[in-house]
């Protein structure tokens, strides 16, 4: 007899996949659930490895963690709302291994492992239409140990494959002539290898700045090259010099856009990542050009299929709590509590929103970077799913961290935040780690 349960497939066992699994697993009367994870552990990008190339199965290394990375959000903001992080002494910006342990605890606590297929890569996702017009999904996956390939049918698919693995590498004229070592931040692990070197880092977003700070402790000189309108405040780092973008390279001489030059031994691209969905059928429209994914509604729902969801699209957000809301929003859609507009209406609404942002001068690749808009987004999807959004204290801490980061990028992680109540927090200075 066919099952009356909604069969949900989750692709990827990082935090996004685990959070969707947690909420689905709480309703096993209504759902059956399979989470596919290609590696042998859950945790996604938080599983640090020294490796930078391929894994034991020949798949590209997924994680972009580097050895000394501490979080850029305090744990009080970063944690999943229904699973607070253990409070330890010391700064709120914890080492990545603390997050890995936390995610493993989360998976255990909510008894998710019975639903998880580890060492299982999703190779293909194909839509099919039933006589009643309903779309179902045929998922082909390979057990990487036995090499056996299987295809199974699901009623809904939640794509949680992460998007910090495939580096965006802009072409720089003359790069072929550079004799030194070149990596993307995806492959960066430790700063010691840059001892006494002259290093150029291209890009001053999160990883560019963080890696510049680390590498400067060992390198003779760091050139932080970027196109930001103003210099980044890197107090005390006397051997870090900021330069505009790179115009060209001739051998080991880098020529910057202001005409200045520098001799460079090593080059690190910190130029961001690309969204990729290599398993998706060509029948499913998935545009990822200009680092922007379409056609998606509310940064989550594929506009042609109301049972295909893509997690992790918004940038400059608080990812773990965001996933917590999005997961419940998805279930409310599948359960019919949220009625989505027709495909045409969704496209119309989306195009209007997109035009308004483009008219404000925001480039297409930045329109999903929610930043100030994130709080309204959380409130909107929480209200639609009839669940609480975040208390004001979360935004207050987030904004405070932003100010501290602006004041001094090299010391903002030395503080401990404590939530007192929904409105208030306390702050104390800890000794640098
Ligand atoms: P991922 O963690 O990337 O997980 C995706 C999973 O999908 C992986 O386990 C992968 O193996 C699996 N997968 C992919 N393709 C397939 C397939 N075909 N079949 C089966 N499995 C597949 N966020 C913060 O909140 N705070 C921070 O301090 C912070 N620092 C960061 C530092 C770095 C260097 C990076 C790269 C990111 C950082 N982030 C931070 C953002 C972080 O990516 C998100 O917080 C979050 O971990 C993303 O989770 P995810 O589940 O979307 O993706």
TrEMBL record:
The protein's enzyme class: oxidoreductase
Source organism of the structure: Melipona bicolor
Keyword terms: FAD, Flavoprotein, Monooxygenase, NADP, Oxidoreductase
Name this polypeptide is given: Flavin-containing monooxygenase
Pfam families: FMO-like (PF00743)
Gene3D superfamilies linked: FAD/NAD(P)-binding domain
Cofactor requirement: FAD
Signal peptide feature range: none
EC numbers for this chain: 1.-.-.-
Cross-referenced InterPro entries: FAD/NAD-bd_sf, Flavin_mOase, Flavin_mOase-like, FMO-like
Family membership: Belongs to the FMO family.
Alphabetized GO MF terms: flavin adenine dinucleotide binding; N,N-dimethylaniline monooxygenase activity; NADP binding
